[in-house]
Amino acid sequence: MSDDLDLNSLSDEDLVAQMHDDLYDGLKEEIEAAVHVLLGRKWTPYDILTQALVEGMRIVGVDFRDGILFVPEVLLSANAMKAGMAILRPLLAETGAPKVGKMIIGTVKGDIHDIGKNLVCMMMEGAGFEVINLGINNPVENFLKAIEEHQPDIIGMSALLTTTMPYMKVVIDTLKEKGIRNDYVVLVGGAPLNEAFANAIGADAYCRDAAVAVETAKALLARRQGSVQQRATA
Amino acid sequence: MSEAAEHHGRRAGAGRAAKRASRMAAVVSTVPFITRKIPIYEVLNEEGLSLIEHNADTVLEEVGIDFKGDAEALAIWRDAGADVREERVHMPRGLCRQIIQERAPRSYTQHARNPARSVVMGGPHTVFAPAYGPPFVHDLDRGRRYGTIEDFQNFVKLAYMSPWLHHSGGTVCEPVDLPVNKRHFDMIYAHMRYSDKPFMGSVTAPERAADSVEMARLLFGDAWIDPASGKPRTAITSLINANSPLTWDATMLGALKVYARANQANLLTPFILGGAMAPVTVAGSCTVTLAEALAGIAFVQLVAPGAPVILGSFASSMSMKSGAPTFGTPEPAHVLYAMAALARRLGVPFRSGGALCAAKVPDAQAAYESAMTMLPACLAGTNFILHTAGWLEGGLAMGYEKFVMDADQAGMLQTMLNGVDLSENGQAMDAIREVGPGKHFLGCAHTQANFESAFHTSSLADNNSYEQWDAEGRLDMSQRANAQWKRMLNEYEAPPIDPGTDEALRDYMTRRKGAFADSNV
Ligand code: B1M
Q: How far apart are CA B186 and CA B178, in angstroms?
């Protein structure tokens, strides 16, 4: 534990290693302190993000996947990550560093299942995404309002009922009508869905679990940012 | 054996043809529901149970229960003396129990259209019903796929034909091929037309609950109103799940009110994934379950005093490594035993259990996990065991093979619950005297009189020699089950229905379906 540890006394390398451990152990305040130390040493926000936080959470992700870490532990890790991100986010924006991405996510209208969606939020925050959790039972208006207010990169929808799954299409069709569908990556998930359904309703991808949601979000945003750049240079 | 033949003499209608016919027909004498004759198993003593009751009352008073999106519900609670703050209702200690004990029936009869199949919910009785809710179906030939109305009808037919399932269930699978806002018509109709066992109604919207009641009224015709009480007979039991932790939501409350006001039964079930929707401990899960159930059942009694209710408990553990629900684990079995005892003390019928598993196919995992919940459910004295047959994948899939395998096990459990026969025939003293030391019992009169029904025989287990099993194609249980469900569907004959009633039901559906546009939202 870093209780008695003076972070300032550590070399950069040891401090980053310590942050990886602290993220692993879900120590929020310790992560906040370490982020401030690195900023004081004139690290760029982007380097802190990638080398300390994202790398630390990558290790957490591996051990979660391998069944070494438990959900409640990963929740604490994700909270520590989120706290670090809260410090870095405004600075990242100022320096024009590449964004990790922002997601709005909600369970669709008529559906109150949220355990899986909350796990997705946790994992996405753990990966550095900014997540706006709209909660349960969301009509399309809630999604539209959140899009306007938060300007997300990703729209996430969850449904656990075959009677509410079709509502995801209502949301996507509304985005199309408004001509804004292609401005966002749309990810959907929930146990009764499958890939074919996601394709049929015009989502960008179906995510079978929270870890896949993170991977897919990263991959699709990278491709998208790539294509934006391509367009700019073409 | 010749001795025995002499005893019987030659009778008309006997001989090979008659015996083959009667044995092949495999008609099993059965009862509409089980009356248990073995003791109840309990895991908590008086001190433990009253501790949980005390804690549940503390939760109701101190933490409160949310009644979401239903202003009428809040007004009802205010009038009943609860402290209502916005949508959160705080019930004074003892209020819910008092309301329930003054008004709720200890047991009730759910009427079937065939009166011989009506079931009694509560007391020493147990009723087995198929699994509920799966969006997917699974069989060995076609694998996993979304359910259709044809699958739905098939499971209704299989449950009708199974001598061990007393109830037709509700959403035996989700008919995803029909529009969301109209599929309840075809689901209810399937239960009414392809079975004559009792069934469950739609809960996904209040107007769908109202359609369910209206169709039951048409089905029962003159028998709908009970002359003794002047109220409708209870023909529907419906599944109303709490949105744990500590929340009842508008959808469920809407359906609940429709059913309660029509004297139909509400099965109020806090459905707990331990760790997510309640604390990870057995006592903590029981406390949350009891608090939610007390609030829900008392609410039914405030809406419609005397309306039939069941206290449900569905507890599953959770993989703390992924969040996935896990089944057949020992801790939820303890919750089940404790909740059954708490429901008995409250004085209402109890629902729990089922052949629950997380397995994707009808394999050893499926069988072990299912047995680990069905056995506690039976030993605990559970009155209504939903999910007795078909459940796979944490309720995401309904399995054809799993269905007939589970139904076969339900037969075993029924025999177990029937207890020990201590009649003169059961004591079998005449057999022991007749045979004496050093001989065998196969030919004695007592065995000859009892052999056919002496042991519950599985319709699926293979007890033959290795060589015979080998020669017959080395089939495992699920392959034999595959043949069995196909044979059953081939042999299925619909129970007769009065043509006028059938027409009235069809008319009603046509009219209602025409009254609004198809919609999937
Ligand atoms: C980017 O966006 C993304 C990406 C990935 C996403 C994503 C979004 N969302 C999910 N993912 C993915 O990542 C997550 C993490 O790895 C995963 O999330 P999951 O949610 O799949 O996994 C979770 C970690 C754990 N899984 C769960 O939490 C769901 C488990 C099951 C058992 C379940 C539960 C727990 C509940 N339920 Co409900 N419930 C069932 C479920 C059966 C099942 N095995 O799935 C199901 C879905 N329910 C069903 C039913 C019928 C109902 N339920 C109801 C209620 C409830 C509870 C409230 C009791 C409770 C939910 C509590 C809560 N706060 O969420 C009712 C409906 C309420 C409503 N209006 O929505 C009710 C109608 C029951 C009733 N009669 O009252 C069935 C579906 C019916 C159908 N045909 O579609 C059901 C299959 C069970 C069954 N057999 O009955 C992935 O899917």
A: 9
Tens digit of each residue's pLDDT (9 = 90 or more) over B28-81: 558 999 999 999 999 999 999 999 999 999 999 999 999 999 999 999 999 999
Number of CB pairs < 8 Å for A and B?
49
Fold of B101-417: TIM Barrel (3.20.20)
> What chain A residue is nearest to B243 in terms of C-alpha separation?
A112
Query: Which whole number is the average pLDDT over B100-109?
Result: 98
Q: With an 8 Å Cβ cutoff, are B521 and A69 in contact?
A: no
Summarize pLDDT for A182-207 with one digit per residue, the tens. 999 999 999 999 999 999 999 999 99
Closest CA to B147 of B108, B185, B187: B187
- Which residues numbered 156-185 in A keep a CB inside 8 Å of some CB on B? 161-164, 166-167, 169-170
B136 close contact with A: CB closer than 8 A: yes
Q: What is the pLDDT of residues B142-189, one digit of tens each?
A: 999 999 999 999 999 999 999 999 999 999 999 999 999 999 999 999
Pair type for strands B108-110 and B83-85: unpaired
Of B176, B204, B323, the CB nearest to A71: B323
Residue B232: DSSP 8-state: B
- pLDDT for A233 equals 35
Q: What is the rounded average pLDDT for all residues in chain B?
A: 95
Domain ranges of chain B: 101-417
DSSP secondary structure string for all residues of A47-88: HIIIIIIIHHHHHHHHHHHTTSS-HHHHHHHHHHHHHHHHHH
Tell me the residue length of chain B.
Answer: 521
Residue A98, pLDDT score: 78
Q: What is the mean pLDDT of residues B288-310?
A: 98
Confidence band of B24 (pLDDT split at 50, 70, 90): low
The candidate with the shortest Cα–Cα distance to B123, out of B348, B400, B430, is B348
Give the full edge-to-edge strand order of the sheet including B136-139.
Answer: B143-146, B136-139, B397-399, B391-392
Please answer yes or no on whether A110 and B249 come within 8 Å at the CB atom.
no
Q: Has the ipTM of the complex gone over 0.90?
A: no
At A199, is the secondary structure helix, strand, or coil?
helix
Which of left, alpha, beta for A96 (phi over 0: left; psi -120 to 50: alpha)?
A: left
CB contact under 8 A, B396 and A119: no
H-only helix segments in B397-498: 400-417, 424-427, 429-435, 445-454, 466-471, 477-491
Q: Which residues of chain A have pLDDT under 50?
A: 1-2, 228-234
CA distances to A55, A114, A151, B174 from A120, in Å: 19, 10, 19, 26
Beta strand ranges found along B211-264 (DSSP E) = 237-242, 247-248
Dist CA A205 CA A216 (whole Å): 8
- How confident is the model at residue B21, as a pLDDT? 74
pLDDT digits (tens, 9 = 90+) for B68-83: 999 999 999 999 999 9
Chain B residues within an 8 Å CB radius of A110: 204, 251, 521
Q: In one letter, which amino acid is B150? A: E
Cβ-based neighbour number of residue A86 at 10 Å: 12
CA-nearest residue of chain B to A74?
A: B321
Query: B521 in contact with A at a CB cutoff of 8 Å?
Result: yes
pTM of the model: 0.93
Chain B residues close to A166, C-beta within 8 Å: 180, 520-521
CB of A141 within 8 Å of any CB in chain B? no
